[in-house]
Protein 1
Amino acid sequence: MAKQITYRRVYEETSPADGKRVLVDRVWPRGMRKEEAHLDEWLREVAPSSDLRKWYAHEPSRFTEFRRRYLAELRDAGHRRAAEHLRDIAAHDRLTLLTATRDVDHSQAAVLAEWLAKKQ
């Protein structure tokens, strides 16, 4: 049975409703100490490749193409194991995908949440 999948900024207050908290960024959030993040896991292997992340540069006008490229990366062997792991978590627990990105609706966390919801 699929559970709720949400996403938000890692800098926001934690909530009991978060369920499992998984950081999905390739690099650690600036200015945040590890104990402040209250993470269950940091799954950097599911983040977009460095090349894709640099190309995108969080430009909303590139989001549609970013989404297409990132979904293709999730099917690649390098991302597949991490993506499957997230799918397993989402099948059993509430899942909150965390990112340091300011515009979370145009982030890999938003793409992952949508992708995971369709896979449940």
Note: Strands lie at 5-9, 20-23, 41-42, 95-99.
Protein 2
Amino acid sequence: MQHESRATTAPTGGPATTATPGGPTPESKGVLSPGRAAPMVSIDRYRPSAELAPFVRHYWIPRWHLPAGATHEERLLQYATCNLVVADDYAAVFGLARGVGSRILTGDGWAFGVMLQPGTARALIGAGRSVDSLADRPEPLDALAGGDGGLAERIRSLRHDDTGMVAAFEQWLRARRLDAEQGALINAVVDAVETDPGIRSVDDLARRFGLGVRSLQRLTAEFVGINPKWLLQRQRLQDAAARLRAEPSTGLAALAAELGYADQAHFSRDFASVVGLAPGEYSRTVQAETGSDVSE
């Protein structure tokens, strides 16, 4: 198990590694208010063993401590994949929140999370469920095809041992003997969207992989539960939010053009409809949370 950087971020932070272990650690773009979480939530991330990288993007293990009576809301623009999560009171595979995902934290807590590769959830849940249904009704681990074999209780018993939790999960996953080829194409499609800014449209993405648009739509619906347009929009908005946090003086017109929008108005409408704040308002809010002075 290879240890990633310790950070103060949300319980479903961004990817800790590329698909190949040993690659660089990209910036986490999923957490909308990392400054607000910093005093209360810590997270450790770990890369999967090399042979499991086709199935696991990374492990995330958050722990939080809030004063009595206090609450903290984590707001997230999730990556285009599902997460397997074990905590004291639940253990399930969770699907994508179409808009902003959120979770209220209270008291002291922890979780063991697995950001799955985009092709993995389909294999884990079996033929009885569709991946898109996981967004509204997570699949309990003990209801997975073949059950969980005591995985949840094993992880709970190791809650203070990160290495042990990862080892327990990897032993369980190896025993399932998943076929890496089954999810290889969707993994490559999502990776291309996340890493190639030259892909601006569904047609661009379909051409990259030699697929018709309808075939691409069926692929993303089956494995991730969303359509290609959503996939491209989500990546644009994650990129936009990350830039607005890191560079609050970024011009919105230039940022819109860089992200492939036809104009600033279209970008601002997209951003506000999903995030709930206009881009400029979002930038000022997150900078205030970190103590920065951002003018109107």
Note: Confidence is low (pLDDT under 50) at residues 2-27.
Protein 3
Amino acid sequence: MTRILKPAKTLLTASLCLTALAACSSAAPTSVPKAYLQGTALDRNPIGVEKSTEFLEIAIHPEASELSLTDKASISSFVAAYRDHGHGPLIMSLPASSSNPQLAVAAVAEARAIAYERGVQYSEISGTNHGAGSDVAEPMILAFQSYKAVAPECRSLAEVDFSDVTSNNEMPTLGCAVRSNMAAMIADPADLLGNRPLEKGDPLRRAVILEKFRQGETTASKRTSDESGTVSQAISN
């Protein structure tokens, strides 16, 4: 029978190594925050949505017979903003207390005409009145609801010690800058609430693309020479 003798010095060295490893494992942080197990870094930096009301006041001049060009331009710009990011009806409120009631009525009619020219249907306009019993002349008021994206508050990177490698956990700032950039780029923050319904697809176009795919043909739209990105050769060297 063969016997293998291990030197006592080797056993002592192995024992010391195991002791050192045990000490290292007990000193290193092993806890993982519960938040890390719930979603991603982006989920922990959500984009908020705030609802607000945008107003436009048009003063009714007591001696004028029609709105000024400046007032008409202001109404046109306000309607364009409504078309861009407005939600709900475009409210036009007639002042019940006015020093020029005839112009007040004409101003509302002019605002409706401007809105229609800018693509707002009459069904999207809601008429109302305000200032009943007021002692002062009230302006005409236009209003609509809008939404604003609120970016998360990101900690300054100067507060983060990137040299600290005692933990393998993600940095507390991870994902915050991405969410801030997204909040600045979102065209309509109301989409984050899921309020806008999806438009119906085009079944005929889908059938054309599917048939081209089956035939091995390109599914990209054809471009004309006017749409080409080729550099012009009109000027030769």
Note: The longest strand covers residues 48-58.
Protein 4
Amino acid sequence: MLEAIRCWRDAGEAVARITVLVAKGSTPREAGAYMLVTSREQVGTIGGGRLEWDCMAEARTLLIEGGERLERHIPLGPAINQCCGGAVTVGIERVVDMDALEREAWKEREGLPQLILFGAGHVGRALAKSLALLPLQLIWVDAREDEFGPVPPAVDAQVTSDWESVLDATPAGSGILVLTQSHTLDALITGAALARNDLRYVGMIGSRTKRKRFESAFRAIDIQQEQIDKLVCPIGDFGVRDKRPEMIAAFVTAEIAARFLGE
């Protein structure tokens, strides 16, 4: 959303904001959810369906014709062919201060959980695309600049071999996902992450055989078994034996979404 706000601000686009003010009963989005609309584009969602379609139409009419901020109370029933069963109150207004909106979006992003993705190989590239869709701060790290390819919007790609500094700067409660080109590097990063014992998720690509070998090495450097037990390896293990990068990425993204966002 932040990237869209910057683009529209720089282009001088008129923007309307649609916000769920009140949500009662079964509703597709919660109070506080919002989306932004221009004459031709939109970003975010208030839940889709006829609810969103009608609100977008009103927002675009407001942008064209002007007028004051308005509110709509919308029962989600037969009248709009949307049978959620609840009701929402929606506010629609023209954005008059794009700089303030950008600051708000930036603050929202800074409040998101952080996930560090080590490795820009074929699975790393697939994961970066998939994880970029989640409400996380994704930092993507590799020393090989040419391996990244196109970096998805909102992803912080860092070309560095100094993984220790990146890990040291990672806040408690963050996640670490390790899939480098080197088993030695995988072991170093994963061992250091487990030794911290304050991360929400530590995942490493690999088989159960790789895990057993690494567990022995971790015990040899005095990492406690209860810390080792927190390691997720294999990652994305939903019992589907498909090793295509896109499939691995899909399952790992689901795993991380459940760990970070399922509470």
Note: The chain is about 40% helix and 20% strand.
